[in-house]
Each structure stands twice: as structure tokens, then as C-alpha cells.
Specification:
By secondary structure, this protein is of the alpha/beta class. Helices cover 44% and strands 13% of the residues. The strands form six sheets. Strands 2-3-1-4-5-6 form a six-stranded mixed β-sheet, with helices on both faces. It catalyses: GTP + H2O = GDP + phosphate + H(+); UTP + H2O = UDP + phosphate + H(+); ATP + H2O = ADP + phosphate + H(+).
Length: 720
């Protein structure tokens, strides 16, 4: 483990402390055991009852604080005893090995009394303690074993001597171990096999550790498993010894030199049967399980702070993990997950997280199977809309274990505040949300499905109960891959705050419905006219006959009035996949909301669009202003030397200065019969203007290139 988990997960990470209660008949030595443990010598005088003892975490084997509580029938009432039982984590029932009466009381009094005070499904672990073993030369185990077989809540039995200090430390270690590494959730002694919940948890752990999904754990996978759980790899001979133990007991425990699931489960059964519960518990807790064999909330939902106006995205490491997960389950290597492959992937989940609507939210192949791109898109969608659910899903897949990170939170990138993006006029986001707004049946669903490359013919095959209000896919803008997330907003008189929150708005109207555009115009005026969210109007169903919209002005004039791009004609009634021009346009507007793009087409890639956007860009305007300011300041510095000409009179000086500036602008780097400007101003040295010259040439060259490109575009357009 790394990043705070570079050690095996101890039980102390799961339990805050352990409370041990000692009960039993009078004069069996309960108080002597506690005092011998603390003072490491037998007390000459024993009080009726020892005070509660707290052992610090740093002196216990499991590094967890331990409280030891004594019970005295002479000093405490039955009510106090019941209260102590309810507070205890483990109870030691003490008897004297030389006193048969005290042994009989174990079953006739103490076990029934304890069980009455605890739930049947959550019995307290019990430790039987045979004290005063120094007084006899025989063992009481023959009498105790039938009792242990009868009551499954009994973890173990320890014979000890408070006088000789025999097994005193072991007694309290076993008591502590019974709490931190209980047998009950793992193993059923009657059937001599692991319980279903334990088998289910270990099966999930096996599938996560089987990184190539071949059904076995090879040497590399076993070593990785050993290292992340116990912080030490196994030597080659040790690995072979483990396999030989499995081969000796079950025939199909090892296959192709790898450990099968049956072999993996057998090893853990063997650990439990031999009293090494801590081995299995270390594995379970490393993979996020608690004492009830449920994944802990701390594991599934690590802390992740998301400030307002920030979004969540998967980072590069998360996409690499998801790519390897997809490849692991794409057994036929067709770059798509069949229903069986998807079901196999979700076997590590307690439920199937994706419904049938996912197939209409992301890209699929011709058979309706989720493609590699669709798989990544769905994870991107989940991260953006519900990051907590994404963390939960990554936890089921074992992200933090396989990537050796502290938690799934390391897979998430929290973007900066959108206000900062607007101030800096650039964004680092990769996912952009577009709310699609329009009246019912105006073609919004067609827009969503067109993003996934589906024409009208394919859309008609979608069942009503499988429809999705979301669609997400990648879009390339100026060579950059971005995710565009479309959200179909239901028609309503007023939009909620959540329905307004987005990066760009797509207002859709039906060209064949005269009442369709009025809703778009009304929603725009109510919510977006004064906002900084860019809007694009889409004229859907453009293959149908266009009718006049019942509104005061036409859609085109409306866009011109509100300084919006003209309505974009769109149809999904095509032979092939519908055009993605409007999606490029929407993504571009979301990426650059500060830039007022005035494209006559929708491609943003043709010569006209590139020239127009470049000439109107803030960068070029800034460069031009800086160059003009620099030249003007240089000219003003020379006014004093040209005083005889420029300062002839007050009115004339202003006129001459303006003419001088105009002359500079007109003649910069333009060859003439008199040469460039710098030959006329010979007293301006070359070193002074070296920096300005470079920027002037660069700006002028870029401007000429843009103008020539635009001229060529217009010439070609006229020829057509």
C-alpha cells in the first residue's frame, strides 16, 4: 500500500478500543488474573474487585487500547452486571480447573445469562479461562471440549495460572483477538465451512486480484496480492509450497500453474481452521470490509471536497484504470462489451449499476453493445452528475487497491471555479454540459441521439421505457478531444435553477410547427438573455417544409437582434449518421463563452470560420493595440527632436502628429521607392526598434495571411 496505506491494515483501523469483561463464580481468581497481568507478579493481598484497567495501544500486539473490567458478585448488583455485559466486546468466563462446581456453572449460569442479554445474530465472543492450573497435574480440556462444540460463540479455551503467571498475556491476547478477528462472521463450526457472506467477499477479492481475468491467480498476481495485503512478497519457493498444499487437498485448486477460486477459498478455510483468523481478516479489511463483511462507508465514499461552481471529472490515471478494466472483460477483443461480458464485469458489484437506458446514453455498436468509447463516456457522465456514485463504483472495482492509492478520490479532478475560467478567458475542463430546451416533439430526442451517430431509422427502434434524457460523446474542437453532455430539459413554463445550470444552451424548434419557436424565444428572454451562458438556436427537422413561425420576428432576425449565431438547420433523417456540425459549434461555444463567434456556417473548420474567428479574437486585438501603443510612444519620444517641424504651432503640431502616426501605420514594412519607414527615421537606431520590429512583422504577416485566405474563400464561393 502507498499514500498512507503502506502497511497491512490492522484491526486498530477498524476498532477504536476493546473492552474485556471477566466473570465467573467467586474465588476462581478473576481479580488475581488482572493484577498478575498488570504487576507481572502474583499479589499477596487480593482485593474483592480490581478497578478498571486500561492498557495503552502501543503496548498491545494489535495496537488498540484495551479496557479490562472485573466483576465481583459481592460488590455489584445484577443490574450492574447486565450493564457491563451490554458494554463488553468480549467476555472471559473464568473457572477453577480444580473446582468442578465452577465448571458446571459455565453452562448452567453464565452462558445463558450472557446470551439473554445479547441478540441471537450478534453473540458476544466468549473465552473460557481455566485458572489455577498450578494446583493440578491434569487438564480440564476433556470436560471443556464438549462445551465448546455445543456453543459456537466460544472462541477458545485457555488454561492459565495467576500464581505462576502461566498464559496470562496469552489469555488477554486471545480475548483481544476474538474481538478484532472474530470467527463468527467467517466460519460455521457445525458445517466446518466458511459462511456464505465470507465466501462472497473472498470471491470478489479473487476477481479483483485476477487482473487478466483468466480464472486463476498467477505468480505475479499472487505476489501483488501478498504485497498489498501483507506488505511483503512471497519467495518463489514459498509460492510453490502454497500451491502444493492446495494440490494435496483438492484436485482443481491449481490450474495452469495458477491458483483457482476454489484453491483460494480453501486456503482461507485452512487459515481459519488453524486459528489464523487474522490472516483472512487482514485481507478482508484491506479490501474495505468491516466486521459484518460489508464494505465500509469510509472505503466506498472517501472524503472529497467540491467547492461551488466547480465540476468533477476523471483524471488520466482513472481513464487508464477504466481502459484496463474494459480490456480485462472484453474477452473477444471486439472493442465492445456483450451482455455476458458486462455481467461478468459487474460481478464485483452488489447490484447491476447500469440500466437499459445506458445503451441510449452512450455509443454502441450495431448490435447495441456498449463500445469502448461508450464505456468511458458513461463513466464520465456518472462522474460529472453524481461523483459520489462514481466513487462507490470505483470502490467496487478495487481502484484504490489495484492502483495502490489511498482512496478513489485520487481518481477525481475537481475543476476550478467557472468564474475564474471566464476571467482568464480559458478553461481546463474536458466535460461540457449542454441543456437542450424546446417544446415536446420538437426534435430534442433526435438531437441527443444524433450526438451518438444515430439517424432517424435507428432512433425509431428505441423503446419508450429505454429512452434516456442524457447523451454524451466526444467532440473534437481545434484538435482537442472534449466530452459534450446533452441533457433533454422537459417543457415547462419556468426552468428551475438546476435546469439553467450548464455551459451552453441549445434551443430547439421545429421548422414545421409554427408555434415551436415562441417557446424558445420566451425561455431565452426569461433565463438567458442577460446571462453569460452562450445560446445556440437549432432549426430541427429541416428536411420538412418550413413554415412561418407565429412570433413577432423571424428566428433569423431574433438571433441578429440578440447577437446570436443564426439558426442552425438540423435533421437526423439521413441515410448515414447525422451531421455533427452543431455539436462542434456547441462545444466551441462552451469552451469559449467569452468569444462571440459569428460563423456563417457551423463547421468552425473552414477557411472563412478560421479567418473570421482569428480576426475577431481577443489575442489579435490585444497584440494590435500593444503594437500601436508602442509605436505611438516611440514617435512621441522623437517629437522633441522634430520640434522645428511638428511644433510650428499648437494646431499644426496636433495635425502633424496625427499624420505622422497615420504615416507609420500605412508604411510599416511596405516597400516603396523611398524605402521603409526606418530609412526615413534614420536617427532611430536599429537596436531601439529590434523588439518592435519582430512583433510588427509577426502581426502583419498573420493579418495578411488571414485576409488572403478570406479573399480566396470568397472567390471560390463566387465561382460556385
Amino acid at each position: 500500500m502507498r499514500a498512507g496505506r503502506d502497511r497491512p491494515l490492522r484491526a486498530a483501523d477498524m476498532k477504536k478500543d476493546v473492552r474485556i469483561l471477566l466473570v465467573g463464580e467467586p474465588r476462581v481468581g478473576k481479580t488475581s488474573l488482572i493484577m498478575s497481568l498488570v504487576s507481572e507478579e502474583f499479589p499477596e493481598e487480593v482485593p474483592p474487585r480490581a478497578e478498571e484497567i486500561t492498557i495503552p495501544a502501543d503496548v498491545t500486539p494489535e495496537r488498540v487500547p484495551t479496557h479490562i473490567v472485573d466483576y465481583s458478585e459481592a460488590e455489584q448488583s445484577d443490574e450492574q452486571l447486565h450493564q457491563e455485559i451490554s458494554q463488553a466486546n468480549v467476555i472471559c468466563i473464568v473457572y477453577a480447573v480444580n473446582n468442578k462446581h465452577s465448571i458446571d456453572k459455565v453452562t448452567s449460569r453464565w452462558i445463558p445469562l450472557i446470551n439473554e442479554r445479547t441478540d441471537k445474530d450478534s453473540r458476544l465472543p466468549l473465552i473460557l479461562v481455566g485458572n489455577k492450573s498450578d494446583l493440578v497435574e491434569y487438564s480440564s480440556m476433556e470436560t471443556i471440549l464438549p462445551i465448546m462444540n455445543q456453543y459456537t460463540e466460544i472462541e477458545t479455551c485457555v488454561e492459565c495460572s495467576a500464581k505462576n503467571l502461566k498464559n496470562i498475556s496469552e489469555l488477554f491476547y486471545y480475548a483481544q483477538k476474538a474481538v478484532l478477528h472474530p470467527t463468527g462472521p467467517l466460519y460455521c463450526p457445525e458445517e466446518k465451512e466458511m459462511k456464505p457472506a465470507c465466501v462472497k467477499a473472498l470471491t470478489r477479492i479473487f476477481k479483483i486480484s485476477d487482473q487478466d481475468n483468466d480464472g486463476t491467480l498467477n505468480d505475479a498476481e499472487l505476489n501483488f496480492f501478498q504485497r498489498i495485503c501483507f506488505n511483503t512478497p512471497l519467495a518463489p519457493q514459498a509460492l510453490e509450497d502454497v500451491k502444493n498444499v492446495v494440490r494435496k487437498h483438492i484436485s482443481d485448486g491449481v490450474a495452469d500453474s495458477g491458483l483457482t477460486l476454489k484453491g483460494f477459498l480453501f486456503l482461507h478455510t485452512l487459515f481459519i481452521q488453524r486459528g489464523r483468523h487474522e490472516t483472512t481478516w487482514t485481507v478482508l479489511r484491506r479490501f474495505g470490509y468491516d466486521d459484518d463483511l460489508d464494505l465500509t462507508p469510509e472505503y466506498l465514499f472517501p472524503l472529497l471536497k467540491i467547492p461551488p461552481d466547480c465540476t468533477t471529472e476523471l483524471n488520466h490515471h482513472a481513464y487508464l484504470f477504466l481502459q484496463s478494466t474494459f480490456d480485462k472483460h472484453d474477452l473477444d477483443r471486439d472493442c465492445a462489451l456483450s451482455p455476458d461480458e458486462l455481467k461478468d464485469l459487474f460481478k464485483v458489484f452488489p447490484y447491476i449499476p447500469w440500466g437499459p437506458d445506458v445503451n441510449n446514453t452512450v455509443c454502441t455498436n450495431e448490435r447495441g453493445w456498449i463500445t469502448y468509447q461508450g464505456f468511458l463516456s458513461q463513466w464520465t457522465l456518472t462522474t460529472y452528475l453524481d461523483v459520489q456514485r462514481c466513487l462507490e463504483y470505483l470502490g467496487y472495482l478495487g481502484y484504490s487497491i489495484l492502483t495502490e492509492q489511498e482512496s478513489q478520490a485520487s481518481a477525481i479532478t475537481v475543476t476550478r471555479d467557472k468564474k475564474i475560467d471566464l476571467q482568464k478567458k480559458q478553461t481546463q475542463r474536458n466535460v461540457f454540459r449542454c441543456n437542450v430546451i424546446g417544446v415536446k416533439n420538437c426534435g430534442k430526442s433526435g438531437v441527443l441521439q444524433a450526438l451518438l451517430g444515430r439517424n432517424l431509422t435507428r432512433q425509431k427502434k428505441i423503446r419508450d421505457d429505454h429512452k434516456s434524457y442524457y447523451a454524451i460523446n466526444t467532440v473534437y474542437v481545434y484538435g482537442q478531444e472534449k466530452y459534450l453532455l446533452l441533457h433533454d430539459i422537459s417543457e415547462s413554463e419556468f426552468l428551475t435553477e438546476a435546469e439553467i445550470l450548464c455551459d451552453v444552451v441549445c434551443l430547439v424548434y421545429d421548422v414545421s410547427n409554427p408555434k415551436s419557436f415562441e417557446y424558445c424565444a420566451r425561455i431565452f428572454k426569461q433565463h438567458f438573455m442577460d446571462s453569460r451562458i452562450p445560446c445556440l438556436i437549432v432549426a430541427a427537422k429541416s428536411d420538412l417544409h418550413e413554415v412561418k413561425q407565429e412570433y413577432s420576428i423571424s428566428p433569423t432576425d431574433f438571433c441578429r437582434k440578440h447577437k446570436m449565431p443564426p439558426p442552425q438547420a438540423f435533421t437526423c433523417n439521413t441515410t448515414d449518421a447525422p451531421s455533427k456540425d452543431i455539436f462542434v459549434k456547441l462545444t466551441t461555444m462552451a469552451m469559449y463563452p467569452h468569444a462571440r463567434l459569428r460563423c456563417m456556417c457551423t463547421c468552425n473548420r473552414c477557411t472563412f470560420c478560421i479567418c473570421q474567428n482569428f480576426l475577431n479574437s481577443d489575442l489579435l486585438q490585444s497584440v494590435k493595440n500593444k503594437i500601436f501603443t508602442a509605436v505611438l510612444n516611440r514617435l512621441r519620444a522623437r517629437v522633441a527632436e522634430w520640434g522645428a517641424v511638428l511644433l510650428a504651432d499648437d494646431e499644426g503640431s496636433v495635425t502633424h502628429q496625427v499624420h505622422a502616426v497615420s504615416s507609420v501605420e500605412d508604411s510599416i514594412f511596405m516597400e516603396s521607392s523611398h524605402g521603409p519607414l526606418f530609412l526615413e527615421a534614420r536617427h532611430v537606431t536599429q537596436a531601439d526598434l529590434k523588439s518592435s520590429t519582430f512583433w510588427l512583422r509577426a502581426s502583419f504577416g498573420a493579418t495578411v495571411f488571414a485576409v488572403l485566405g478570406f479573399a480566396m474563400y470568397k472567390a471560390l464561393l463566387k465561382q460556385r
